[in-house]
Each structure stands twice: as structure tokens, then as C-alpha cells.
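Consider this one:
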Amino acid sequence: MFGRMAESVRRLLGKPGAVDLRPYTKLLPAIEAEEEGLRELSDTELTEKAIDLGYAELPYSPGDLVNLCAVGREAARRTLDERPFDVQLLGVMALLDGHVAEMATGEGKTLAGTLAAAGFALRGKRVHVLSVNDYLARRDAEWMRPLYKMLGVTVGFVSEESTVAERKDAYVCDVTYAAVSELGFDVLRDRMVTDVDDRVVPEPHVAIVDEADSVLVDEARVPLVLAGAAESMPADVEMADVVRTLKPRLHYEVDSEGRNVQLTDAGIDAVEKSLDGVDLYSEEDTSVLPQVNLALHAHVLLQRDVHYVVRDGEVRLINESRGRIALLQRWPDGLQAAVEAKEKVAVSETGEVLDSITVQALVMRYPTLAGMTGTAMAVAEQLREFYEREVAVIPSNKPNIREDHGTRLYATREEKEDALVARVKEVHTTGRPILIGTQDVAESELLADRLREAGLESVVLNAKNDADEASIIAEAGTHGAITVSTQMAGRGTDIRLGGSDMADRDRVVEAGGLFVMGFGRYPSSRLDGQLRGRAGRQGDPGDSIFFVSMDDDLLVNHAPETTGFQTTAEGEITDEAWLGMVDHAQRVSEGQLLEVHRNTWRYNKLIDVQREVVLEHRELVLSGDEGDRHIRADRKERHEELVEELDAEKVARAARLITLYHLDRGWTDHNAFLSELREGIHLRFLGRRDPLDEFNREAVPVFKGFLDEARTRAAASFEELEVVDGELDVSSVGVKRPTMTWTYMVHDHPFSSALETLVGRLKGGRGSSSGTN
């Protein structure tokens, strides 16, 4: 009664709450009743029964839902030797209704997602299962292929290594698995094609997002970028060498949050002297100061083995929410080059941005959107606000008996480290496997060294060896194992007690199961939960505990007070008020991340509207006769002349290529304008004006004449067309595509981002440089 009342109140107030599972639960007995009869069918008959479900529209009726789940359960039993639990079927039904299913680690999200994807596909919908990386996309597609086949559904996958032909083959399948970034890059490339047959991504129908909170929230603001017109930007090695000599507090100061750095007066004098007396604030040359700030930012605020690693002579960013190498991610080019100069490695290619799309805009293309994750309720508000999705909390198959201990708080990092090592030593004597979660690469390696000094050998999983992550995680439950890892989100492999073959399972269970220890709390409680959730899988025993110190970044950056506490002899702070401050700091951090998400969404909303206008017109030109019709109207005499000399088909093709070129060229230029506008718009705060309002006020009128301008330029180019060897030479009027394109991801933080100050036109002020999130 009280549960129903609470739900009613939540809905009345517009608060996000869990989806009512009772309509699904009522169907479980009927599903089980079908089981015995289905077992008597041959494989062919079972497939035919699944295909019969395709003769109706979505949504599934209760009777068809029973049949789908019953057939799916029997097909999984035959092909995978796995009989889906009732709770997994609840997850299937929730996904088919377009919800985000919260299912704990080890509860079988992959199988639930497969049956839901098949359910959509059987009703004629094209399904994209979006993963967090190529490894999981390939693994899940190949792992589930026999099940899909028995259900009469085709499946494929796309990875970074896929050729154009392989991508086309994968996308024509009923169900396609792909990393969300890889799908985004394909969408961006499709937006630049000049022939309909060159597109690879079909019209979107259904997206099922794995690790939905990570993709839809943590990475929602990440722009996927298509760049072209490659050229190298020379790295300013001299500038890197200059800032390398500067001393903290004497020559530069870093703010309390570690996000901004600026030169002191002594620093300005030192830099100007090192650069042969150049005036950093000269109005004649405004290019030097931004270069200094870029180099200073790269040297001071971006740390090797924390924000990036150097591998195979390249600077590679670390994905903050996953602790892995972000192969396709980079900083905007000036900062990327500055870091490469700092590390004395070859400078990567750069060029202009042709187009971009945020992860949020990418998934919002799908009329039907669903997702799965172990930690959805913590972001239920954002899922409702940005995606209009509700969370269905699926109960675990077996009760969770993991014991979650309170946070242990210490005065200093050293004392925290001592306490954790002592606890590891104590637990290790029992033979229990131990998983230690750390914040970054450097921390994981330092902690592993500290454990080694104490006689405790461990296996380290971080961005430097993430290629081995599946095998490392698979053995993390082995008797006596100690594993030190960065972020656990999206690792995708269960930790089974006793190791991958579970040979020692009984011994590990008797010892108490997996013990998870966090070396610091994360910026988001969800990340804590993802680490903690590695223990207690499927009713297994387990424990979790987090060790925090007052000098952790979380508290230094987000706690209102970090002095005045009392400690025990071991440096532990036991006062409940101070322990509560850890939770407070985490909530502040989460609030800031939410505001970043909101700002990004608001900023990109206008850009998405303008982009959609261009794309709709581009589609008319690409697949219809819009370009030829306009040019025929605007340049009638020249058009008739060329038709008479050649033929109508060749003129139409030339008109299409020219019109597409000016649309794409215009959008690239408009993108650059919007970027320039945004770089300085946050300074409107100084005039007490809302930067978002100011951005919209200036961006809207500039776009008003966009299509007319592109049409005018296309007509002018057509007028100058030359006939060469019986063909219309569009290159003679400057219609040339980039000789090379490439894709990458960048961080984004509108209106308060580091790079808006860094690469802005710093002509006044005293060399301020801001850091990224």
C-alpha cells in the first residue's frame, strides 16, 4: 500500500521513479506454462513459431509477449545452454516497452538485450545494439549469433577495422551491434556522400543501449567529429621548452580546483625574456599569448598516466569514465599539439571540422530507444529530462548478500594507503580474491608498487594494458588473486568466483567471496556502485569498502571544509559529520556534471535544429532533382546550352555535385563561425548577460540566409563550368572534396570550458588558462 502511495506521489510531483513491473510479472506463469510444449518442437518448428510472431505490429499484445518470451527462453536453452531467469524476461519486456532496465552485474543483461532485439526485429524493426567499445560489440554479436539464428533473425557487427563493404553487410542485418562512437562516425561520413549508394547506415528504427548510463549520461556531451583537408600543425617545441623551466607559485599559479593556471608577473617576465624580449600583450602580434597558454596548460594541468598515456610514440587520451585508452578521442588541435610537443612525439594531423554530432543527438535519432545498465536509478532524473525514458528496476534472481561497509576516512593519502594495504594483507591471508578500484593509471601503478613492497603481488588493469582486460577480469575471482584496476564501467566480463573455469568456486565461497576495495570515491556515486557491484554476483557472498582521504581530489574540489578534524592514532577520521561530507562532496560533483550536461544540451539544441534544416535540403539534392531544378531556374541559358552540348543526365549530375559542395562548404564555415562565437560567448558573464541567450541571439540571424547563399554560390559556379573531353569538369570551379577525412572524439564543456579561454583570442588580461573537465 505504502509503495503504491509513494509511486503515486512521485508521479504527481513529476519525480522519476521505477516502472511498475506488475503487468510483466503477471505474464510469467503463462510463459512457464508454454515451456513443456515448446521442448517437443524440432529446431525448425521452433524457428517457424518465432517467425510467426512477425505478423503483427508493435507493441506486443500480452499473448504475443508470452509467446515471444517462451520461444526465446527455449531457443536460448538450446543454443546457449542458458535458460533465462524470470527476472531476465522482465528485463526483456521492459526493453520492448522502451524503458531503461536496471539489472545488477551478473544478472544477464546481454541475453535480455538479445531477446528484446529479436522481439523488435521479428516485428520488422531494424535494431542497433549500441555498446561502449568494439570488443563488446563483436563479442556479443558472435556469442548470441546461434540464438538469433534459431529465432530467424540475422545479426552483424561493426568495428573500427570494418571495411565499407563489411559495414554495409552488417547494417543490412536485422540486428547490428556497434560501439556508439563507430555508429556516430558512420552517420557523419554518410552526411558527406555525393551518391546515395555510398551511404552505409540505413534509416534508424530501434536502439538498445548497453551501459546506458555511461553512454546516455557520461558521454552524452561528447562530440564525435569528422575532419578533413588534412595538414600538419607544427608543434611549438620551443614554447614547450620555455614553460618547462617555469616554477609553480613563482611563475604560475593553479586555482584550488586544479582547472585553471595563469602566469604571475614573474612568469610573464620569464617567458618574455626566454622568447627574446617578445611582448606577450602586443597588439601587433596576438598569436604568442595563446600559444604560451596552450603550452602552460599542457605542461601543468594535463598529467601523463592520468589524463593520457604515451604509447607507440603517440599521445593517447584516457577515457575518464572507463579508465581505458580513448583511441578516437583527442583535444582540440592546438592543445593536442601542445601536449605532443611537451612529450616530444610526432604531431598528429589536423584540419577543419566538417561536421560533428553529440552522442545524445545520435541516439535521439531513433524513434524507439531502450537501454540496460546496472546503475540507472541514480540518473533517473536525467534519463527522463533528456530522453523521456523511465527506469525499470529489475530484481536480482537471488538475494544480494554482499556486505557493504561504510567509507573509511583518513587525514592524508599516505594514511589511507597504509590502511588499505593493511586491510588487503588481512583479507589476503584468507585466500579471498580482492579487487581494488583506483581513479587513474598512475594511481593504479603506484598502489601496485606499494602492495609489492608489502609482499603482495597483484595484477594491474588500466589503460596501458586494456587489450588484456577480458582475461584479467575473468581471473579476478581466482583464490588468492589481487587485481588493481581503473574504472570498472563497461568492462563487460563477469568476475566468477573461482576464476573463469570456477574450479576453486567452493573454496572461494567458503572464504567469503570477492572483496572489493575502492581507493577513493569517484566523482559519481554510480561509478562507486559499478565497482561495488562486482561482488555479490548472483547471490554470491562478498564485501565492499571504500578508503577516502581529505586530500583526495573529490574532497579538495567539492567539500566546503577540509580542515579542523580530529583523527585516531592511525589518522582515521570517525566523526559522522566529516564522513557525511564525503557524500556531500560527491553530490556537489554530480550536480556540476549534470549542469555541464544541461549546458551542452541547450547549446547543441540550436545547432541541431540548424543542422537538420541543412540535412533535409541536402537529402532533396542527393536523392532527388532539387539541385538541378534550382540551377535550371537560376541559370536557364547556361543550363540549356550544356544540355544541348552534352545531355541532361550529365548536367543534372554536375548540378548535384556543385550544390552538395556549396551546402557542405557552407555548413563547415558556419560550424567554424559557431565555434568562434562560443569561444568568447562565456565572457558575456562579465556583462551580466546569459551566454546561452547571447549565443542564440547571434547565431540565429546568421543562419537565416544559409540555403539562399548556398543556392546563389552553386548557380555562380555552374555558370563557369567547363567541358573537358566531353565531360563537365566540376573541379574547374573549385568543387573538390577533402583528399582525406578522419574521425575523433573531443571533450566538450560549453561556456565554461578550458579551451574557450585557451584558444580564444586572448588580447587583454593576464594570460589566464582554464582546464577541461
Summary: The first strand starts at residue 100 and ends at 102.
